Amino acid sequence: MVPQFALETYIFSFSETFPLCASAKAPLKSMKIHEYQGKQLFRKAGVPVLEGHVAKTADEAAAAFDKLGGSIAVVKAQIHAGGRGKGTIIDTPEQRGVVLVKSADEARAAANGLLGKTLVTIQTGEEGKVVNQVFVEAGCDIARELYLGIVVDREASRPVLMVSTEGGVEIEKVAEETPELIFKEHFDPAVGLDAFQVRKLCKKLGIEGAAAKAAFKFMKAICRFFVDYDCAMAEINPLVITGSGEMVALDAKITFDDNAMFRHKDLLELRDLSEEEPSEVRASDSGLSYVKLEGNIGCLVNGAGLAMSTMDIIKYHGGKPANFLDVGGGANAQQVTEAFRILLSDPNCKGVLVNIFGGIARCTTIASALIEASKTVGFNVPLVVRLEGTEVEEGRKMLAESDVDVINATDITDAAKKIVAAAAG
Question: Does the annotation count 147 as an active-site position?
Answer without folding.
Answer: yes
